[in-house]
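step: validate -> pass
step: tokenize input -> pass
step: predict -> running
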Amino acid sequence: MTAYEIGVAGLILLSAFLSMAAGIGILRFPDVPTRLHAGTKPQVLGLAVVLLAVVLRVPTWGVVSTVVLIMTFQLLTQPMTAHMLGRAAYRSDHVRRDLLIEDDLGRDIDEHEHEHEAGPADGR
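step: predict -> pass
step: emit ->
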């Protein structure tokens, strides 16, 4: 085994560790926001590391273009997924509001409900 192959194997092991940390965080953390953080950050970094290992092992244009597409779609969809899951958890009262430092979403929801109750501003 060459040093190059050992480096690629090390990247794959790092990726496995990050993915395992994401799974453990999802199971062990106490509330939804910390679980979302644990599920997104290490998972995306773990995917990036394993994709880097793939590119280093098979450095062809086909592999590189596929890896770029995979990473692009992951970076576009993962934050939106976490955002929507967080909003759904908040609206279904699965978020401990006493742990929030600032509750921007609650303030926005209250403002929207008051505007909706008051009716249209132009009197129609």
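step: describe -> The first helix runs from residue 3 to 28.
step: cleanup -> pass
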